[in-house]
Amino acid sequence: MLDFKQITAKDNRLVKLISLLQKSSKARKENRLFVLEGLRICLDAAENGVTFDTLVLSETAYLKFASDIAVLSDNAKSGVIMSDDLFGRISDTATPQGVIALCGMPETGKPISTNGRYVALESVADPANIGAIARTAEALGIDGMIISGDSCDVYSPKALRASMGTLLRLPLYFCKDIISFLNDNSLRGYACIAQRDADLKIGEAAFSDGDVVIIGNEANGLLEETRRGAYKTVTVDMRGKAESLNASAAAAIVMWELIKR
To answer: Cα torsion at 90, 95, 97, 102 (round to 10°)?
Structure first.
């Protein structure tokens, strides 16, 4: 069991750091740190081998979740306790459980296999969409998620909560440009568009290993150069008067088609 230290000052360095990391993508990238908040997501991370730099607890949580805290402590390098009021200052939720884990970002640059099937996100702006797409990808057995540099931060509190921990388990590949990344790694991209003049309806695509379905920005879709550079454009054939789908809904449909054959 960790030897938890008591923090009482609101201007404590760790208190300031966590508050900043909760709010700022730039701070997360510069410090190579992110915050997990909530008992369930922290337990899930511990079960999947994520090491915590610091485990932060409110006084109430320390007493209320004693058995779970013992599990979390085994994965933490250090631990601190603070009053419920002070914890509320660093929490990103309206009703904090009193459990936060400060984690180091995993190393990137791992190779991607041409034997897998992947989803790529270009300029996806809503962290809730990234989290939802990651959950669906894991559930369907997608081999990883490719994320363009102008997409929102996958380590934001909202994205991590929406993913229910999936973003800590699913292989992630970060790149500046989707098409260049696919070409460099001998992968074949299917650009998902709303237009009815796409090359294929999604059910007509003959997917195989090494294929990637590409989802674009919620408001603007995919970049024109991404459409041109993709192997094929595909669309979800819709009935009624709907002209487009939410990004996470569209991703769920095309990922299902990608893996079902």
So the answer is: -30
Residues of the domain holding 201: 118-260
**Cα–Cα distance list, 84 to 23, 81, 99, 154, 245 (Å):** 20, 9, 11, 28, 42
- 136 and 243: one domain? yes
Instruction: Please tell me whether residues 29 and 82 are part of one structural domain.
Output: yes
pLDDT per position as a tens digit, 39-85:
999 999 999 889 999 999 999 999 999 999 999 999 999 999 999 99
Q: Which residue's entry shows tokens 């991404």?
A: 226
What average pLDDT does range 20-43 have in this prediction? Answer: 96
Does residue 95 fall inside a structural domain?
yes
Residue 201 lies in a domain: yes
Count the helix, strand and coil residues of the chain and give each as a percent rounded to the nearest 5.
Answer: 40, 20, 40
Q: Which of 47, 169, 166, 149 is nearest to 106 (CA)?
A: 169
- Separation CA 20–CA 37 (nearest Å): 14
How many CA atoms are closer than 13 Å to the CA of 24, on its beta-carbon side? Answer: 14
Q: Measured between alpha carbons, how far is 124 from 70 in angstroms, rounded to an integer? A: 38
Share of the chain above pLDDT 90, in %: 88
Q: How many domains does the chain have?
A: 2
